[in-house]
Amino acid sequence: MPVEPAVKRAVAFFDGQNLFHCAKAAFGYTFPNYDPVALSRAVCAQRGWQLSGVRFYTGVPDAADNAFWNHFWTAKGAQMGRESVTIYTRPLRYRNKQIRLPDGTTHTFLDGDEKGIDVRIALDVISLAHRQQFDVGILFCRDQDLSEVADEIRLIARDQNRWIKLASAYPYSPVARVRGIDRTDWVQLDRPTYDACIDKRDYRPKPPPQLGAQAAPVAPAQPPATPPTLVPVAKNSGR
Question: What InterPro entries does the record point to (predicted)?
């Protein structure tokens, strides 16, 4: 039986879109207002784990398809990069979808499709476990496609004769009594915990100045902030 380590190193893996939809269902939030670093620290503090890394994964629309969300995720990613978060992005693919309405008519709309994010997360969890980079992997999502990763982690633990845990952290409320990822330890994020980790920064595009408005004094030029390294996910990986 592997010995449980006294200090448990934890790495957090965020599926940005999945976590947003979980928070929307549980708490009604209409945009991704979470702070990944704060959430990671809160979960680790509650369970006595030592946070050693945060990794964030999301699809980002092209500016030509959706300028608002392209700006939002670029700005939020820049802030996470300044906090030493490892960020992986890939383009959202848009296609027309149709649904049939109750009156028999059809409605066509443009839907963004996020391909390959779960595959990238799975590969990174397994790779870091093989390299003994963590004792606890925290998946901030409920994607059941990742349940097979838990089986692989158990095999790695057996082969390396060491203690490894995989957890699924997700928003939970009386209106969203949902399950975590199968074969993982479930970490239910209640509203007080989630709300204590809200990112209060505004990543929305700034409106252009109104014509005829009095010009503000010109501030001295400042060097641009160093952007994070945005690593595209391989294009040939899919769900």
Answer: NYN
DSSP codes, 110-138: EEEE--SHHHHHHHHHHHHHHTT--SEEE
Contact 89, 77 (CB under 8 A): yes
pTM of this structure? 0.81
> If you average pLDDT over residues 114-120, what whole number do you get?
85
The Cα–Cα gap between 65 and 93 comes to 10
pLDDT in tens, 132-146: 999 999 999 999 999
Closest residue by Cα to residue 228 from 102, 61, 23, 84:
84
Asked if 117 and 17 touch (Cβ cutoff 8 Å), the reply is yes
Domain boundaries, the chain: 9-204+228-232
Phi, psi at residue 44, to the nearest 5°?
Answer: -65, -40
Whether residue 127 has pLDDT greater than 60: yes
Which residues are 56's β-sheet partners? 14, 87
CATH superfamily of 9-204+228-232: 5'-nuclease (3.40.50.1010)
Query: Tokens 């790495």 belong to which residue?
Result: 11
Query: Comparing 48-57, 90-99, 198-207, which segment has the lowest mean pLDDT?
Result: 90-99
Packing angle, helices 117-130 and 147-160, rounded to 10: 10
Distance (Å, whole) CA 150 – CA 136: 11
Label residues 209-229 b or e (16+ Cβ within 10 Å = b). Answer: eeeeeeeeeeeeeeeeeeebe
